[in-house]
Amino acid sequence: MRTGSSRQTSQASVPLRKGASPEANEPLLDLHVRKVRWTDAFAISSIRQRYLLNQPNTHWRGSAPTQLSLRRLLPFPSSSARCFVACADRRLVGYAIFDVIGADQRWVLEGIGANLGIYEAEPVLDELLRVAVISAGLEGTKRLYARVPDGSGILSAVRRSGFTPYAAESILGSTLVPIAHARPGIRRQSPSDLWSIHQLYMATVPKQVQYAEALTSHHWDLRARSSGAGRSSGWLVEDGYQAVAYMRAESSPEGHVLECLVHPDHRDVFGDLLATTCADLGVTAARRILVVVRGYQRELLPYLTSMGFVLRLEQDVHVKYTTAPARISVSSALSVGVEVKEPAGKRVPTFLHGQPSDPSSEGAGS
Description:
The chain has 366 residues and is of the alpha+beta class. It contains nine helices and 16 strands.
């Protein structure tokens, strides 16, 4: 974990009962949120209420949440994690883990947990997320992300913290790669395909999703995504010189994760693309396989179910912006004869606005 000279901490008094205000006659919890330390390892392992997020990226580690938490929480020099713990009465009562990825150093919520015995855990979750958003903004991060399964107990806290859903996802899986044969007209991705794949992304993905994800053509570079035991592969279908369908596989010793782009006018090629992908992956060691299908791609589901894939999880992808547009007011003292340009847009930290005014928070406007 990267450590800097700044040490963000937070001290707050929060109500122990769900929905109670600090002004009400309710017991208050003096909560202190700080970055993780080596000495926190044992206390973290005792946290019982855990939420393992960012599926399917963490799917293969889902059976061992304690090991995941400890590995990501402990401040190894090579780790990109940002880890926070919440303490009350000298006792660790919660943690939050964010991975930092991409050229823009975006934060992705991987796990969060709390343990308050008979009391509600939501005040701890709220404070952990609030401090994380502020810390991300201070590092210059513009966006934080959270994948939250439908019906998850963490959903309310994520929404209250200002995270807004921008895409739904269905995750389908199979215990083994389906048996299939390669089809003609599909080829492997080459380094020169980045621009073409990105153009396909721009043509097929809704604009609000593009704005939330803020991806560049570098996102499709397989060389940048392959590291350690993980390997990335890609397959393309072209119409002339334009990509009309694309499949990417992230492979590890535990399994494969597939994501795809298909132009609406060429959905009929998806079956051949999927079969070729499975044929190529099937020659490797036997392992599980998952496919991520976005809400705007649901017409692809019949192809997957026909090959034996079964729905495993449904979730929403959330984004939280640490900045918001603001306008500079023009001073009334300016002479009418002076040519005044349109006020320039600026970016100001939303966490300085205060929590109630967060336009993307569930509580806003209530």
